[in-house]
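Key result, reporting period 2: structure in, sequence out.
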């Protein structure tokens, strides 16, 4: 498949704190399926090519619910099939997927609102490849920079060539390309080489998760105001947060600063390395988090 295009929307997110956690991907074990008007089922929260291929005169699906699952009752089965004289691979995406079956030009729009910093993309899979074929599994985190193709903040991509008859754990490192905060997440799985799909390849996939080896994830709020930001020497926080506990972490989750009873004074950060930090403020049993950029 060629012509893959991503046009995504801006988001607000929620953060949670732990030293080793897995953030749920919606319907990550494919337990919930929705019946479409054409009669086929699609996994809730995921898009597939089924609405295009399961129409006159094709009446085929590339993504199916299967009870051959690793986790829970169901998994997603992706199969590369013949559509007219072309091959359509099985495909799932957290975005909105569309394909022109005559040209095989695809487009993906949307994704899910996201502003976290995972370290790994994990899943369990089985694979039966056609000769010379491979499957692709991965994710993109992007930010909307006002252009038709948003900036890529981070990726995690894996091409699998080997047959696996039993469910196998797959863990892919997330590679960050810049210091921009992510805004959109899209995860894909495709049963064939997306540029030259081969009929007959079958991918089973289940229990997709994002892993945070260390990190901060808290509730982001508009009430929190750090100024100046960006800064090189110091910052202060608005009066609403007087008497709060303040902790600052780097993006690896390391604690770099802490004060138990903030009184509105300047917080000196001149010895911080340049980069992004997360400022966590705890008050009245509620945690607030905002990014701090140190020049």
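The corresponding designed sequence is given below.
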């Amino acid at each position: 498949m060629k012509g893959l295009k991503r046009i995504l929307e801006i988001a607000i997110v929620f953060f949670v704190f732990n030293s080793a956690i897995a953030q749920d991907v919606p319907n990550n074990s494919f337990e919930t399926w929705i019946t479409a008007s054409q009669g086929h089922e699609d996994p809730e929260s995921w898009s597939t090519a089924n609405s295009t291929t399961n129409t006159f005169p094709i009446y085929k699906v590339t993504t199916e619910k299967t009870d051959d699952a690793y986790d829970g009752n169901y998994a997603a089965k992706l199969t590369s099939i013949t559509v007219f004289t072309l091959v359509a691979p099985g495909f799932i995406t957290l975005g909105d997927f569309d394909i022109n079956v005559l040209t095989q030009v695809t487009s993906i729009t949307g994704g899910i609102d996201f502003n976290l910093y995972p370290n790994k993309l994990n899943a369990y899979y089985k694979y039966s490849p056609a000769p010379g074929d491979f499957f692709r599994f991965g994710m993109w985190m992007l930010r909307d920079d006002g252009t038709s193709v948003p900036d890529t903040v981070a990726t995690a991509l894996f091409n699998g060539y080997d047959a696996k008859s039993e469910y196998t754990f797959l863990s892919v490192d997330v590679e960050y390309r810049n210091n921009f905060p992510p805004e959109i997440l899209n995860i894909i799985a495709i049963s064939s080489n997306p540029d030259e799909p081969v009929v007959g390849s079958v991918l089973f996939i289940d229990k997709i998760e994002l892993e945070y080896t260390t990190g901060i994830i808290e509730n982001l709020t508009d009430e929190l105001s750090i100024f100046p930001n960006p800064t090189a020497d110091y910052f202060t926080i608005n009066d609403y947060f007087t008497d709060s506990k303040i902790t600052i972490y780097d993006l690896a989750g390391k604690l770099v600063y802490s004060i138990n009873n903030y009184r509105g004074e300047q917080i000196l950060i001149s010895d911080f390395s340049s980069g992004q930090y997360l400022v966590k403020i705890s008050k009245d049993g509620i945690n607030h988090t905002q990014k701090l950029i140190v020049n």
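The chain has two domains: 6-212, 226-294. The radius of gyration is 22 Å. This case is discussed further under Risks and Mitigation.
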